[in-house]
Amino acid sequence: MDTDSVRLFVLAAEKLNISAAGRALGMAPAVASARLAKLERTLGADLLHRSTRKVALSLEGSEFLPYAREMLAQESAARAALGLSSATVSGTLRFAAPSSFAQLYIAPLLPDFLEQYPGISLDLRFSDAQFDLIEGSFDLALRSAALADSSLKARKLADDDRILCASPAYLERRGTPRHPDDLATHQLIGFRDQSTRQLSGRDGRTGQFDPSGAGCRLVVDDGLSQKIATIAGAGISMNSLWSVSRDLAEGSLVRVLPDYDIDEDVALWLVYPKSNVLTAKVRAFIDFLLAEVGGVPPWVAA
User: Fold this and answer.
1) Does the pLDDT of residue 148 top 80, yes or no?
2) pLDDT at 142
3) What per-residue confidence (pLDDT) applies to 86?
4) Residue 91: left if φ>0, alpha if ψ -120 to 50, beta else—which one?
5) For residue 198, what are the β-bridge partners?
6) Tens digit of pLDDT for each residue in 188-211?
7) Secondary structure letter of residue 47 according to DSSP
8) CA-CA distances (angstroms) from residue 197 to 211, 213, 272?
């Protein structure tokens, strides 16, 4: 089956316009119509309903469309496996990531990626809300959690170590905790849906970081806002090391209970739907992020 004709059908189905789909592939309208007609004869089914006023998917076309997209994805993956040059990698990549991390470590890298891969366009969703990859038709997402969804595949980007922080002004005003039990008398900042975290001391002592149990008066659902409030002296919060490393170095934040580690195995994962073929554009972006952020990440190297 001619994959160029399949590609034309997919574009026509998305645009509901055969002429526009043909122009996107450098075909005259008459040529595009003839190619689609030939594909329909090959398949023995009408994929599109045509009238003088509009184009619509037929029932057979709707059933064939996901297979057509999979054929194109398989072709792209095969080309990537053969090591074709970055100039041949093309398409729009839909990528979702937490806003705070993306602003610090992904957005500054985007010009370099776009220069390396001139055929790729990026459709980005930077938000602390977690999107459904399959329903949202995302090619790739960054998640910071223990991976539990069996419908997803993942590549580890980096560890996501968490620490407790406060501003110097807050600690001067309220005192510095020496043991987790001391947190009960402090102002704790909670994050949306945050559960109790166990703390393990290097001397064998244990404790908890439990904002709800301490009568937390400030709960936020955005990582950057939580950090800003902490710097402003609102209390003690738990933060990812990548988020606060620069603030610790500058002295606007101080680590609280530095001899205690937070007991959780959390990492930054690049995830994609298990049903999807790892296309050339997705492979290119994963490899780029692993090279720039993985290994010894910039917040550790600094």
Assistant:
1) no
2) 93
3) 54
4) left
5) 208
6) 998 877 778 889 988 888 888 888
7) -
8) 9, 11, 28
Residues 6+ apart with CB under 8 A from 145: 266, 269
From 141-145, 247-251, 258-262, the region with the lowest mean pLDDT: 141-145
Residue 108 and residue 155 in one domain: yes
Q: What mean pLDDT do residues 113-128 have?
A: 90
> What pLDDT sits at residue 150?
61
Residues 7, 69: one domain? yes
Question: Can you give the pTM of this predicted structure?
Answer: 0.68
- Domain membership of residue 105 as a residue range: 88-160+266-301
Please identify, among 81, 106, 127, the residue that sits at the C-terminal boundary of a domain.
Answer: 81
* CATH code assigned at 97: 3.40.190.10
State phi, psi for 259 to the nearest 5 degrees. -90, 5
Q: Take residue 130 and report the two structure tokens written for it.
A: 């977690």
Query: Among 213, 210, 175, which residue's Cα sits nearest to residue 196?
Result: 210
**234 and 189 in contact (C-beta within 8 Å)?**
yes
Return the H-helix or E-strand segment holding 187: none
Of the candidates 24, 15, 93, the one whose C-alpha atom is nearest the C-alpha of residue 54 is: 15
pLDDT bin (cut points 50, 70, 90) of residue 301 is: low
Using alpha carbons, select from 191, 175, 194 the residue that is nearest to residue 183.
175
CATH of the domain at 224: 3.40.190.290
3-class state of residue 127 by DSSP: coil
Between residues 302 and 139, which one has the greater pLDDT? 139
Domain tally for the chain?
3
Strands 91-97 and 140-144: parallel
Residue 269, beta-bridge partner list: 143, 156
Question: Rounded to the nearest 10 degrees, how much is the dihedral formed by the CA atoms of 184, 186, 188, 194?
Answer: -10
Quote the crossing angle between the two packed helices 59-81 and 3-15, to the nearest 10°.
Answer: 130
Higher pLDDT, 136 or 253: 253
Mean pLDDT computed over every residue of the chain? 86
**Helical segments of the chain, H only:** 3-15, 18-24, 29-43, 59-81, 99-101, 110-116, 168-174, 223-231, 241-250, 280-292, 298-301
Q: What is the CATH number of the domain that holds 76?
A: 1.10.10.10
